[in-house]
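Open question from group meeting: does this chain pack into something compact, or does most of it stay loose? Before anyone orders reagents, we agreed to write out a predicted structure and look at it together. Recording both the input and the output here so the notebook holds the full record.
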Amino acid sequence: MDPILYHAHHSSYQEDIPFWLRIVDETSDPVLELGCGTGRVLRPLAVSGHYIVGLDKDASMLTFLSQHTGHMPNIKLLQADLTQFHLDIKFKTILLPCNTISTLSASAIIAMLRCVNRHLHPGGVFAASLPNPEIIKHLPENEESEIEYIFPHPHNSEPVQVSSKWSRTGNVFALTWRYDQLFPDGSVIRTSEETSHYFLSPKKYKELFVKTGFSKITCYGDFDRSFYTPESPHLILVAEK
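C-alpha cells returned:
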C-alpha cells in the first residue's frame, strides 16, 4: 500500500483517539502499538507525552512515519510481524487499533495474543478494536460503492477519489480500496489495496483471549465506552493480563 495515499485517506478519522489516550493514561507507559502504520494513533499518544513503541511489518509505512515524527525521543519504531515478535522490553499497555485484528485468522490471533501476553507486565492491558462482526455478517454478499471521499494528493494537490468494493463469503470479508488520482488532461492513475478480514463472533474472540491467558475481558460497543450489544457499531476488547 502506498503510505502517502493511505495516510491522506485515513488520517482525518479521529473518533477513536480519545479512547486510546484514556486507555494509556489509565495503564501508563511504556506503550506498544501493533500495526502502527503511518501513525494515526501513535502520534497523538506520543504528543501527549507517552513513551510508545510502534511495530509494523511494512517498511514503507515505518519510513513514512519516521519522516513525519522528526526526532521525538519518546517514539521507537520497529519492523516485525505482530504474530511473532520478540522484544527485550515489557509494556504496561499494548494496543491493536484500526480494525487490524480482523485481518488475522483465528490461529494468527492466538499467535499474536501469545506474543502480547509475553510482552505485558502483570496487570498490563491489551486493547483491540474492529467493526461489529454481528453487523458485518448481515451485509450484502457483494457491493461496490460510489465515491466515498475525495482528498488532494499531498504531492501535487490533484484530487484523489476513494471508492471501495467488497465480497463476503461466510465470515471472510474481502475489501478493496480504490484510489483514483485525476489529472487535468483527463487521465487517471488508479491504486488499489486489497485486504481480507476474518470476522469471528464476539464469543469466539473472548474465548481466544481466555485461551491465551487474559482475564477481566471487557467488550465495548463504541469509543464512548458504551457496553457492547449486537447493534453496536464496533467491538472493542480490553483485557488484563
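Observations to bring back to the group:
The chain has two domains: 3-134+200-240, 138-198.
The radius of gyration is 18 Å.
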